[in-house]
Design brief:
alpha/beta; D-Maltodextrin-Binding Protein, domain 2; nine-stranded mixed β-sheet; 42% helix; 13% strand; binds alpha-D-glucopyranose
């Protein structure tokens, strides 16, 4: 059967993405008409497992699948998909969408409830609820995700430090290892790598700082935006204090890729990243394989909360091949496929799989990831709906200013509260 290699999305939708176009290879064949086209994230381990799964699907059904990779930046991906989905010319059938995007594609995706009525209850109810808008099931959950803290197991052992549970102990550990490694000859070593660039990942980090400092719900009983100012200020002060102290100041430009690169290069003791990163961080060919541990987020109030992430497939209303696309969707989200995904580090969206004893054998940190999922904090995508991205962009801008030292935490918290309240009413 024909199997197409993954393409960057620009080969398919060039006119809309001039910038991306520049990154495209020249002279590629136009895609054939009968393949199911899906978009996924350009994460290596995800591309590998998707390739494996779709190969099986094609062997079983004779239906070819084309995998297209979206831009690395989440916001760019959202913008691009919003433009593509409204245009029949894009020819895209299934979109892999973020857990926060449910309100961003009004009327563009097929309601999946009727197609999966007997199976909806097999998925985590909270994710199904998240993915349901005005009674319509916008997307079927593929893998779930949560913010966790990776660490260099070998370095913690070297300095005789236990995985720290509080932010204070965490900072002390990061500094001890940083000073030790610099003295041992690595001037580029920093204690803690994370994502401080003004992108979605910064909003995720911010939600974790708030949650682990006890800020609690961002909304009061009347649904108005409020912040526990004292705790929110403490959280921002702490994060700003990391920069230039235990964190490379370049972090202000970093998204996931750069933070992972620093960790991979052996230049960081701790890395805040996503649960799905376990597979790629520990890939056998990498020098650090086997030297990495993972724990839930350190905390200042006893709640080790990581931000809930995760990805789901949505079927475009303008897909001309909905029947085959539904077959593929059923296949990719099936128990069997999710078991394979879990082995590559992508957490299942079917609770049953967590009860499967053999899962832990194939996926060492399952217990930690489950704990993190249990304590996960949510971004306010349900509250902001189609304005979530505007909310997130606002957070990124204001928090960036604070982190770079251009603003105080107090002023930033005031601005966040005023602006986020206004946005809620729009
Ligand atoms: C991960 C999460 C996703 C989040 C993104 C931010 O992919 O799964 O929910 O929005 O990171 O960069």
């Amino acid at each position: 059967m024909i199997k197409f290699p993954p393409r960057t999305i620009c080969t398919l939708f060039a006119p809309l993405m001039v910038a991306l176009l520049m990154a495209c290879g020249k002279g590629e064949e136009p895609p054939p008409g009968d393949a199911i086209r899906i978009t996924i994230d350009p994460v290596e381990s995800l591309v590998a497992v998707t390739n494996e799964l779709t190969t099986h699907f094609t062997e079983e059904t004779g239906i070819p699948v084309e995998i297209h990779l979206g831009p690395r930046s989440i916001s760019e991906r959202l913008n691009l998909y919003q433009q593509m989905v409204g245009s029949r010319a894009s020819g895209m059938d299934l979109y892999l969408i973020d857990v926060i995007w449910i309100g961003h594609f009004p009327g563009q995706f097929v309601d999946l409830r009727d197609h999966f009525s007997r199976h909806v209850s097999d998925f985590f109810p909270a994710i199904i609820e998240n993915n349901t808008l005005h009674g319509e099931l916008i997307a079927l959950p593929w893998f779930t995700d949560v913010g966790v803290m990776y660490y260099r197991r070998d370095l913690l052992e070297k300095y005789d430090i236990a995985p720290p549970e509080t932010w204070d102990d965490f900072e002390a550990a990061a500094l001890t290892i940083q000073e030790g490694e610099r003295a041992a000859g690595n001037p580029d070593f920093w204690g803690f790598a994370w994502q401080g660039g003004p992108r979605e990942a910064l909003t995720c980090n911010l939600m974790e700082w708030f949650a682990t400092h006890g800020v609690g719900s961002l909304f009061n009983e009347d649904g108005d935006f409020t912040l526990d100012r004292r705790r929110a200020t403490a959280a921002l002060d702490r994060a700003a204090g990391w920069i230039g102290h235990i964190t490379n100041p370049d972090v202000l430009q970093w998204i996931e890729l750069e933070s992972v690169e620093a960790f991979h290069a052996g230049n960081a003791a701790f890395l805040r990243y996503w649960s799905f990163g376990w597979g790629s961080l520990n890939a056998p060919e990498l020098e650090l394989a086997g030297k990495i541990g993972v724990m839930t987020m350190p905390t200042a109030n006893g709640t080790p909360s990581g931000t809930l992430g995760g990805w789901q497939f949505a079927l475009s209303r303008s897909s001309e091949n909905q029947e085959d696309a539904l077959k593929l969707l059923r296949f990719l989200t099936s128990e069997n496929s999710q078991r394979k995904m879990a082995r590559a580090g992508f957490l299942p969206t079917r609770p049953k799989l967590y009860e499967d004893g053999s899962m832990a054998e194939h996926f060492e940190p399952l217990k930690t990831m489950l704990l993190a999922l249990d304590e996960a904090t949510l971004r306010p995508s349900a509250e902001y709906g189609r304005n979530y991205n505007a909310f997130s962009t606002l957070m990124q801008r204001l928090v960036s200013n604070r982190l770079s030292g251009a603003e105080t935490s107090e002023k930033t918290i005031n601005d966040i509260t005023t602006r986020a309240s206004l946005l809620l009413r729009e």
